[in-house]
Amino acid sequence: MITLQGIYKTYQMGAETVYALRDVDLQIGENEFIAIIGPSGSGKTTMMNILGCLDTPTTGCYELAGEEVSQLDDDQLADVRNRHIGFIYQSFNLLPKLTALQNVELPMIYAGAPAVERRQRAEQALINVGLKERMHHLPTEMSGGQRQRVAIARALVNNPVILLADEPTGNLDTKTGEEIMALFHRLHREGKTIVLVTHEPEISRQARRIITFRDGQIVADQMNEVTS
């Protein structure tokens, strides 16, 4: 599903070239559950941005679902994101003046879906994450766990094949984090490919594959038998 070959990402800081990623090769198959770990500045976030088509590599090839995406322009990348990828963030990234239902509808508005279809699909997505009774509430009227469930419903509403989650339990207490991870496990069983960035060892150990970054490179890539 995903193939990265010879990926470099560099930035110019005056006369100095800073390497965020160095010669990264990576393959991700269908229905994998992957955790990306590593210290701050190791390249985790840059890797997620490239995987999510939010950024492009300086050099190298990125093939997603059979399509070479590393040289696409911004509009083309937006189309790829909308068709293939759902994003989940630590800070939820919900619009505070919109209800849960309206927040979940947003990706379908960008995709041009009709209003009636948007409403039906958004309602079903919220039901699927256990928020049937909260869909007309504002984010400020919901707990952190409920807001993250809204964010997951929003990520799922266009039926992406890949979910990218950046520290999805980072703002949650332990019990709520466990509930969110249980939801990820259910989505994985239903066929989703899940890639999450985390600094929490207990979260990474729940993934089936753990990829470790350091200094912009993959230094370990191992299968993990201990899953919850």
Q: What would you note in describing this structure?
A:
With 228 residues, the protein is of the alpha/beta class. It contains seven helices and ten strands. The strands form two sheets. The protein has a six-stranded mixed beta sheet with strand order 6-7-8-3-9-10, sandwiched between helices. Strands 2-1-4-5 form a four-stranded antiparallel beta sheet, with helices on one face. It starts with a strand and ends in a 5-residue tail after the last strand. The model has no long low-confidence stretch (mean pLDDT 93). One of its GO terms (molecular function) is ATP hydrolysis activity.
What is the rounded distance between the termini? Answer: 25 Å
Shape: globular
Q: Give me the CATH fold name.
A: Rossmann fold
Largest sheet: 6 strands, mixed
Major β-sheet strand ordering: 6-7-8-3-9-10
Name of the level-1 CATH class: Alpha Beta
Q: Average pLDDT across residues?
A: 93
Series of secondary-structure elements, N-terminal to C-terminal: EEEHEEHEHHHEHEHEE
| Structural category | alpha/beta
Q: What percentage of residues falls in helices of 4 or more residues?
A: 25-40%
CATH architectural name: 3-Layer(aba) Sandwich
Q: List low-pLDDT spans.
A: none
Helical segment tally? 7
Q: From the alpha-carbon coordinates, what is the Rg to the nearest angstrom? A: 18 Å
Count of discrete domains: 1
CATH homologous superfamily (4th level) name: P-loop containing nucleotide triphosphate hydrolases
Give the total of beta strands.
10
Share of residues in strands? 25-35%
